[in-house]
Amino acid sequence: MSTDNTNEDEHRHDVLIPNDADENPRVGKPSDCAGGIPAVLSTFKHAARQMGVVKGTKTLLQMNQKEGFDCPGCAWPDPDHRSTVEFCENGAKAVADEATKMRVTPTFFARHSISQLMERSGRWLNAQGRLTQPMVLHEGRDHYEPISWDDAFGLIGEELGKLDSPDEAVFYTSGRTSNEAAFLYQLFVREYGTNNLPDCSNMCHESSGVGLGEVIGVGKGTVLLEDFDKADAIFVIGQNPGTNHPRMLTALQSAARNGATIVSINPLRETGLVRFKHPQEVSGIVGKGTPLASLHLQVRINGDVALLKGIMKEMLEEEDRRPGEVLDHTFIENYCEGFEAFADDLRQESWDELVEKSGIERAQMKEAARIAIEADSTIACWAMGLTQHENGVANIQEVVNFLLMRGQMGKPGAGACPVRGHSNVQGDRTMGIWDRPTDAFLDRLQERFGFDPPREHGLDTVHAIKAMHDGSAKVFIGMGGNFLSATPDTNYTAEALENCELTVQISTKLNRAHLVTGKKALILPCLGRTEIDVQESGRQFVSVENSMGVVHPSEGKWKPASEHLLSEPAIVAGMARATLGDVSNVAWEELVEDYDRIRDAIEDVIDGFGDYNERVRWPGGFVLPNGARDREFHTDTGKAKFTVHPTPEHKLDDGEFLMMTIRSHDQFNTTVYSNDDRYRGIKNGRRVVMLNERDMVEMGLEEGQKVDLVGTHGGRERVAPEFRVVAYDLPRRSAGTYFPEANVLVPVDSYAKRSFTPASKSVVIRIRTS
Ligand SMILES: Nc1nc2c(c(=O)[nH]1)N[C@H]1C(S)=C(S)[C@@H](COP(=O)(O)OP(=O)(O)OC[C@H]3O[C@@H](n4cnc5c(=O)[nH]c(N)nc54)[C@H](O)[C@@H]3O)O[C@H]1N2
Ligand SMILES: Nc1nc2c(c(=O)[nH]1)N[C@H]1C(S)=C(S)[C@@H](COP(=O)(O)OP(=O)(O)OC[C@H]3O[C@@H](n4cnc5c(=O)[nH]c(N)nc54)[C@H](O)[C@@H]3O)O[C@H]1N2
Ligand SMILES: [Mo]
């Protein structure tokens, strides 16, 4: 682990994340039902406002169809029998946001200086529309100016060429990048000579990848969509599907109708998990909705290890009472190791401590254990509520312990289901976007392309920020994303980016990462998912991998937002040629002429992609191999592993709170669509801190009061000023704020062990009132 050098640094400045001037939060009651008429209205309103009524409706009808484009909203899979309208409210917003009629042209940049744009909210920046032309920021200037693609690539080649070592450059990827673009990008970066390939996954499901990889031999989930219909119990842990994976509610609804019991584990009673009205069913428009979770465990923030241990301890005690009836001994003996140590640890845990640390009564743990015991098949789903803690990897491995006890892996209706975020974040990793590539992968790359790829592991997101901060990395290139606002410790990251010689953002929309730059900066605008991509050989499609390991095509249908846009693969090829020159072993231009050629190269390098070009054209695509799904555990011992983890403890001093940073219903990561959070009943304001009412009374805080949130991790004070207090139903001493407004408070040095995922769901803060 790197040492903390943050406290020696003087604050050079505060990069405040301004909000809209007219924000003034109003708080009503959280809704008790997700979907229904409000979701339908919201969908069409967004689409029509951004695209116009005709294009809006047409676009919605093309989403997630077998011939259409993959929804850029999330990585939830498409059902085999798709309705003509296979989209959700929030997917529609993501599409409308990309297909908007608004444009950010060179005139826009001539009119607005960077200093002026810095005063604007992220929502405002995004709302200005699609980027249309490559732009450059020359050293010492306050305005971006137009630049030709050739000159832009030339500048990148020149700056990368100047570095003492390729390891002084950082190549970030966000998770919308297609397989084809991602494969070319890592190929370029490795031929250039570094494994510095941080990605958004580092901040997202890295704890799942590391955790699962260690104990079941594959860093991905083990269930398919059809398993939801076969499950008797579904545990949804640390996830808010009603907002972030709305199409998952359809799967949960149909599972519930088939008799499955759904358990939700969450400090908040999230609307989508309570009751759901399918917006695309008649009964969903007018009916009462389907009740979903029948047991809600309102766990303390980061109380999941304690809670899962409590549930498993109950299961173990029940097994002692009814030997052979609770545990799957055959599975444990044949496929697992480490059970004895695991069971011993559970036996010695004290009930009082498990109850105290989880915030959940023993009777409720017993009830959850009963549901698990009565279920022949159980699925456990999770997202950021588990991964973004210092013990994020342990959280995931406790979930695996829970599943292994009853052999709930590698059989129908059962298994682990990390629900991914960005629509191709899983595919990007499969393609080699990884700071820690395996030797086997690099060998194959070497064999196929005939250069020596670097073997030393590269920088992940946290370490890339530190390297730029201390000057050991000098060029930053971002393939999508919003590196400034998505990362922890906004001010520290701002200093890191400003230390660079050159920062490059390959983007569709304007965001704050375009404003906090290196000495020189480039904006390279690219085609989005929804747009037609024509290369030498004609119209192209790309491919993506969903959360369940299904690879399928995605083809844009709309005229590009500007004639100057290039596709991501073409941009990579341009950067590669300008940087590597004629000595490159890769025929960049040829590959980009016809994406089938890129897929042929992928097939040669990556397992599971045999006959890629043929199979990707199959209706619905194809499924990647996954050992654990067939009870083949490719761990170092060939067994699935039970593991033992200490129960985390947060010793909060008087006046301290444990804060989680979460998404509202009207944002996609750092892209804020509006200042409302409809399901939680919070309107017209994002600078809010949700607190338990009794804590408010104790602290003498009033609803709506303005406070500063202060963190002091590692001896450095971090302040998020002027948040409004909102009383909300969450456990004592917990606080909830929105990402990215609260990222200034997430310490760059607080991250999950082994996965280095920033602990953005357990930030210790104080509340300052004057
Ligand atoms: N519309 C929309 N869709 C999205 C996104 C978006 O921003 N908007 N983002 C995409 C991306 S990249 C991702 S990764 C996913 C994110 O999807 P989620 O993980 O659902 O997103 P978060 O808002 O971070 O919510 C985390 C949930 O975990 C709970 N939680 C927080 N701390 C804890 C804890 O300690 N224990 C437990 N048990 N629960 C906890 C919170 O109350 C919240 O319900 O969504 C993807 N889809
Ligand atoms: N405090 C806190 N921080 C968090 C989180 C949290 O829960 N709490 N969540 C973390 C998670 S899970 C994630 S995944 C990260 C997300 O981190 P990022 O992926 O870096 O952030 P996004 O906000 O998704 O990026 C949005 C930008 O991507 C660009 N973009 C959109 N579509 C395309 C495209 O097709 N191609 C290209 N080239 N660019 C495109 C647009 O310019 C847009 O402004 O944030 C992390 N940060
Ligand atoms: Mo994510």
From TrEMBL:
<keyword id="KW-0479">Metal-binding</keyword>
<keyword id="KW-0408">Iron</keyword>
<keyword id="KW-0004">4Fe-4S</keyword>
<keyword id="KW-0560">Oxidoreductase</keyword>
<dbReference type="InterPro" id="IPR006657">
    <property type="entry name" value="MoPterin_dinucl-bd_dom"/>
</dbReference>
<feature type="domain" description="Molybdopterin dinucleotide-binding">
    <location>
        <begin position="657"/>
        <end position="740"/>
    </location>
</feature>
<dbReference type="InterPro" id="IPR037951">
    <property type="entry name" value="MopB_CT_YdeP"/>
</dbReference>
<feature type="region of interest" description="Disordered">
    <location>
        <begin position="1"/>
        <end position="29"/>
    </location>
</feature>
<dbReference type="Pfam" id="PF01568">
    <property type="entry name" value="Molydop_binding"/>
</dbReference>
<dbReference type="InterPro" id="IPR006656">
    <property type="entry name" value="Mopterin_OxRdtase"/>
</dbReference>
<dbReference type="Pfam" id="PF00384">
    <property type="entry name" value="Molybdopterin"/>
</dbReference>
<dbReference type="InterPro" id="IPR010046">
    <property type="entry name" value="Mopterin_OxRdtse_a_bac"/>
</dbReference>
<dbReference type="InterPro" id="IPR041953">
    <property type="entry name" value="YdeP_MopB"/>
</dbReference>
<comment type="similarity">
    <text>Belongs to the prokaryotic molybdopterin-containing oxidoreductase family.</text>
</comment>
<dbReference type="GO" id="GO:0016020">
    <property type="term" value="C:membrane"/>
</dbReference>
<dbReference type="GO" id="GO:0043546">
    <property type="term" value="F:molybdopterin cofactor binding"/>
</dbReference>
<protein>
    <submittedName>
        <fullName>FdhF/YdeP family oxidoreductase</fullName>
    </submittedName>
</protein>
<dbReference type="GO" id="GO:0051539">
    <property type="term" value="F:4 iron, 4 sulfur cluster binding"/>
</dbReference>
<dbReference type="GO" id="GO:0030151">
    <property type="term" value="F:molybdenum ion binding"/>
</dbReference>
<dbReference type="GO" id="GO:0008863">
    <property type="term" value="F:formate dehydrogenase (NAD+) activity"/>
</dbReference>
<feature type="domain" description="Molybdopterin oxidoreductase">
    <location>
        <begin position="130"/>
        <end position="506"/>
    </location>
</feature>
<dbReference type="InterPro" id="IPR050123">
    <property type="entry name" value="Prok_molybdopt-oxidoreductase"/>
</dbReference>
<dbReference type="InterPro" id="IPR009010">
    <property type="entry name" value="Asp_de-COase-like_dom_sf"/>
</dbReference>
<keyword id="KW-0500">Molybdenum</keyword>
<keyword id="KW-0411">Iron-sulfur</keyword>
